[in-house]
Structure formats: structure tokens, C-alpha cells
Amino acid sequence: MAVFTSVTLDDLQEWIKQFSLGQVSAVRGISSGIENSNFFITTESGEYVLTIFENLSFEQLPFYLKLMKHLASRGVLVPDPVCNQQGELVTALHGKPAAIVSKLEGSSQMSPLPVHCAEVGAMLAKMHLAAADFSIRQKNLRAAEWRHATVPDVLPFLDAEKQHLLKAEVHFQDALEASPLYRGLPNGPVHADLFRNNVMFDGERLTGFFDFYFAGCDTWIFDVAVTVNDWCIDIESGALDDARTLALLNAYHSVRPFTEPEALVWQAMLRAGALRFWLSRLYDFYMPREAEMLTPHDPGHFERILRLRETGPVPPLPYFSA
Ligand SMILES: Nc1ncnc2c1ncn2[C@@H]1O[C@H](COP(=O)(O)OP(=O)(O)OP(=O)(O)O)[C@@H](O)[C@H]1O
Ligand SMILES: N[C@@H](CCO)C(=O)O
Hints:
CATH class of the largest domain: Alpha Beta
Strand order of the largest sheet: 1-2-3-5-4
Number of domains: 2
Structural class: alpha+beta
CATH architecture of the largest domain: Alpha-Beta Complex
Number of helices: 10
Distance between the termini: 49 Å
Shape: globular
Bound molecules: adenosine-5'-triphosphate, L-homoserine
Strand content: 5-15%
Order of helices and strands: HEEEHEEHHHHEEEEHHHH
Number of strands: 9
Mean pLDDT: 94
Largest sheet: 5 strands, antiparallel
């Protein structure tokens, strides 16, 4: 579990008064997640999620929280952030930025069927369209610049063959990003971390996307690739499952049709998604942060996925030919 900062009921009694939620009667640390400290809190107005941000700053947070508010107001199922009486979404708790958001019903679906993947695909397309006119622009903080800063940190821990794989893939992605094809891809605010554990379901009904704290502006197709690389795979091997992949892609396409350039970069984007998470997992594995209890995710999982996406084949993207 990752509660980096502890919070007691006593800590919250005064702090909560700035929100119009009444008194807090219970606070419970949430035993999953590796980025932030999360708590379920029970107030006189109902149950909410309190997050203390361990890595993001007061300046960075309005992007994520206002994006969630923007999406919630447009009918995309996401946690709705709660403002304090001054209209602020982020306030200090134990000297760190903190926010309260509504609690989603349901639980994560860790063994998805095609029906779940179709729900995720349709909501993802709806989210991309709804976010397109969001006024704040913040780049994806785990994109090229981060890649270049992080690779030198992890290379000394890898054997020669893994070093080669990592360097060659970075080179491939850099070249793609410099191409006119890439610059023509539709883009906007994306979730960028839409794994199984960041979506809630009640049976077959999707109840919400959450954990927007890796969101940023990037290509929509990158977001689809990150999502497919988690929702549509055999978890042991990393191989794509055709039925789930097609269900997710077709449902997305029926809400926001894919374009031909997106179809052309599809396999490369699956590689980009695998590289992004291989690298962050390598970093967290070899350079762990302090936490009460923290089990780093296995980097080998995304190394396998990267190798599989490089060699292919992958199910083709349906697209609308203009
Ligand atoms: N709005 C919400 N409604 C219901 N449950 C939530 C909500 N936000 C977080 N949770 C619960 O808290 C857990 C951890 O949250 P979250 O995934 O945001 O943490 P994190 O530290 O950012 O994790 P990671 O980056 O590893 O996914 C989730 O698995 C979920 O059970
Ligand atoms: N989804 C990420 C964790 C950060 O949210 C991973 O599985 O590596």
C-alpha cells in the first residue's frame, strides 16, 4: 500500500470546515495506488475520496482537477472535484496539496470481457471529444522530454541487450514524433493511464474513469494504445486478445471515428505506450521512493509487451477514409 502521508480524523476536523460537507466521521487509508496518498472519508454529505498529492505541485494540479470538473459537467463519468468556500479545488493539508472528489460506485474489473472493453472504448472517445474545448493546456509530463531525462538514469541497471532495446525504441519514437504524419494526428487532453485499476464498473455498467493525475495533452491515438495495452491483453504473456481489442476499438470508432493517419501509426503507438510504462516501471524499480509499504510494478511486463508490439502483428485500426 502507498499511504505516504498519514491522516487522522483529528487532522481533518478543522480542515474540512472550509468545504460545505459537514463534519467528518471516518477516514480510511486506501491500500492501493503508487503515486498519491488516498483516503475514503465519510462526511455528513456522504462519502468522498481525499487525495494528498506526493509529486504534483499546487501549480500543476488545477489542470487535472478542472479537467475532471469540465468532463463531469459534460456527462463523462469521472469523479467530480469539490470546491471549498473560496472556490478552490486544491488546498494544503500537512503542507502538501490535497483535494476532495466524489466517490465512484463499483469496483475495478480486473478480468474484463469484450463487453467491458466496449464500454471503456465508447467512454474514452466521449472523453476525448468532451475535453477538446478544455481551455487549459498542459503537456503530457511523461512524453519525450521525460523519456530523455529518465533513460540515462535507468540504463546503468540494464544488461546490454535491454539497453539496446530501450535506446532503439526511444530513437524510433523520436523519429516518428518528428514526422509530418505524427504532427497531423488529432490531439488534446488525454488520460494517459487508463488501466483496469483506473476504471470502475458495476457489473457490466461503467461507472467512471478516475486517477487523472497523468493526464496531459497528447495524441488521442496514444491514449487508445495505452488503454488497449492493458485492457485487451492476456495478462501473463502481454499478447493482444482479438475479441477484446476489436470490441474496444469498434466502440471507440462508433463515437469518434479513427482517421487514416491514426491507422498508419497504430502499431507504433502501441509501442510508444509500452515504452512509456516500461520506462516508468524501470525508474520506480531501480529508484524507489520512501513509502510505508510499496511494491513496485514489474517492469518485465511492459518489456514483454514492447517486444510483442515490435514484432506484431496487431489487429488493424478501423478508420474513416476522408
Ligand atoms: N473517485 C474515486 N472513487 C472511488 N474510489 C476511488 C476514487 N479514487 C480513488 N479510488 C480508490 O483508490 C485507489 C487508489 O487510487 P488511485 O489509483 O488514484 O491512486 P494512485 O496512487 O494515483 O495510483 P496509481 O497511480 O498506481 O494508479 C483506487 O484503486 C480506488 O480503489
Ligand atoms: N498504471 C501504471 C502505474 C501508474 O499509475 C503502471 O501500471 O505502471
